[in-house]
Amino acid sequence: MTARGTAPGIRARIADLLVDGDEREIAFIERLVASFLERAPVMLADLDAAIAAGDSAVAAHRAHALKGAAANLGVSGVAGLCAEAERLADAGRLGEALGHPGLLRSALAEAGDRFTEVLGDLRSGLPIVPRPA
Amino acid sequence: MSNELNELWRRRSVFTSETPSILLVDDEPTVLETLGHQLGTDYRVVTATDGHGALEALDRQGPFAVVISDMRMPDMDGIELLGHVRLKHPGVTRILHTAQGDLASAISAINTGQVFRFLCKPCPTRELRDTVRDAMEQHRLVAAEREILDKTLRTSLQALFGCLELASPQAFARAGRIRDLVGALCRELGLDNVWEIEVAAMASQLGAVTLPPSVLEKLDRGLPLPDDEQRMIDAMPGIAARLLGEVPMLEDVVEIVRGLRPAGGQHTLVAVDKPMVTMAVGVLRAAIEFESFISRGVTAENAIVAMGGQGDHEVAALAALRRIRGITTEQEEARAFRVGELEVGMRIAEDIVAVNGLVLIGRGITVTEMLLDRLTNYKHIVELVEPVWAVVPDPAAPAVAA
Q1: ipTM of the prediction
Q2: Residue ranges of the Response regulatory domain (chain B) (predicted)?
């Protein structure tokens, strides 16, 4: 499976955010991605701690926060897992989310790789998503 | 949760006062940055990271045309925030931006926040821009409609009170004196809604057009009235309330005027359940009573003492009356003028009357260009009693709203 095949959400979102495609805009997107990749592991650690502590309210809030940050950049795998964790926390079934932090760590690592590829393509002037025929 | 606000001055460094402003609210900073980027350079964008910060921004950094709020935030969620915005800033178009696309959220957003649109996260740039463009248009339409309504209301009231002036210069002048006193009292007491209370003061005298001249004369001079004539005076607020009862945006004014009616034939207040209206009724009653005492030739000090003795006036209103009369009586000194010597800005101190006794201009009226024209016209038709007495404004005195 190619990288482009596993990250359509990321590529579509970044393509959508590229309005002018100029240097300033590319720098903005790089900064946005860097901010997410720096903050997401911290947010995940906070979620992990809340799940481990069995604190449903805090877990729901933290899952929601990470979901919003991930969805904002098209990281649909992370956003989907967080939505599920949030739903379980809200329903008082936090015990069913014990495996989510591990899955989220893998999804975040993969997202990091996909971002590296996409930003590389962007800097090389390669198309981010196939243009419609 | 931080209440810090960031203003994003992106790309375009200078915005004019015409540039529409958008308030973005989300507890995730990268979402705020992304939305700001997506919106481009056509708007001034202000951000807040929670509901309290957003309400503060609306008060201090507005006016805003549009607010886009996240749904799930700590302390105050997006629906609650947009509900506050609807009440405090009804002209601002409201958009909910949420990852929670469930039916319950949508129902609450529509019923409580009366949102204009519901955007799902992450929102594509084209959809966001189209929605904001439509929201701006909605804001423009609402603002234009409001402006037309304001102007219609303002000019209609001017016309209505202009009719009072034509029908009864004495009653109009008395209404003006009461309005000026009410305005000064409101400012002294730090009350909001001053225009509504001033309009209620003018409106409270509209019923004077139904009074026989002899009763109007006694009213204007503050003279005691027999029961049948007092009933005519007591009916005045009801007449004004009937005249204004169906006018949009005057609901509080009508309530204030209604509050002046004696209940059950006794001089007790009709119960009202709005604190602003209750206070306004108290201020207006004090002003009307004070005006009656002064018209009777009672000094301001004695009038306030007598009103205090009546026991049915607001203590705060009487204290404010004492403070403002203490200042104004020292500043005012009436002087005699020929009609041709009157100038714009002077205040008529005694009624201007024709030699046959007809009152042409009531005392207390401020001289305007229009009033000078009217006096010139009167002089061609009837002989005026001269000199006339007027107060020359002290240039150092604070301006009183007309």
Answers
A1: 0.87
A2: 21-136
